[in-house]
Amino acid sequence: MDYIDLYESPLGPITLASDGESLVGLWFEQQKYDKATLGACEARPDLPVLLEARRWLDAYFGGKDPGPIPPVNPRGTEFRQRVWGQLAEIPYGRLTTYGEIAQRIAEETGARASARAVGGGVGHNPISIILPCHRVVGANGSLTGFGGGLPRKIALLELEGVDLSKLTVPTKGTAL
Questions:
Q1: How far apart are CA 67 and CA 79, in angstroms?
Q2: d(CA 53, CA 55)
Q3: How far is Cα 16 from Cα 122, in angstroms, rounded to an integer?
């Protein structure tokens, strides 16, 4: 059984999901790949981990570094678990690239990892914002896709004080 709650963010409604102990999902409404890993659900806004996630999000959307993330347990393959673990290590207000994540995974495992494979893992991140996939950009500074939509990615980076002046939007190829 999974447990859910709704959170009203400044960027639209967010669904929070838990297995009872950890977060297993956090999605904007109509986000790509939303709720794909959930089983049967019951609303439980009083669940401690969901309350902790709400406090974390309140601080985050309040423009503050919310500190350590709530307990997470994203569901996915071993490789995706590694990618998501790398996402958790990206500091607030900082960016990294798919290639840099691939390099760190290769160093950890001794096995080659491609930026493209990392992109697939990042794209299927089931715990948006808290596992900050919005902080990953292309090697050339391209603001690649975000399951919650590119405008939300830009808004999240702006909220964190990221300098967007050297980043580009892939479809237009122009600086922001």
A1: 26
A2: 5
A3: 18
**Position of tokens 């050339």?**
140
- Based on the residue annotation, tell me whether 41 is a catalytic residue of this protein: no
For the chain, which domains are there? 2-61 (3.30.160), 78-159 (1.10.10.10)
Non-local (6+) Cβ contacts of 110 within 8 A are none
Give the integer Cα–Cα distance in Å for 148 and 135: 13
75-133 pLDDT, tens per residue?
Answer: 999 999 999 999 999 999 999 999 999 999 999 999 999 999 999 999 999 999 999 99
Select which of 133, 137, 157, 162 is catalytic.
133
Q: CA–CA separation, 114 vs 99, rounded Å?
A: 7
Look at the pTM and tell me if it is higher than 0.90.
Answer: yes
pLDDT tens for residues 78-88? 999 999 999 99
Please choose, from the candidates 105, 148, 151, 98, the residue with its C-alpha nearest in 3D space to the C-alpha of residue 128: 148
Give me the sign of the Cα torsion angle 62, 60, 45, 68. negative
- Contact criterion met (CB below 8 Å) for 27 and 34: yes
Sheet (strand 2-9) strand order = 23-28, 12-18, 2-9, 41-43
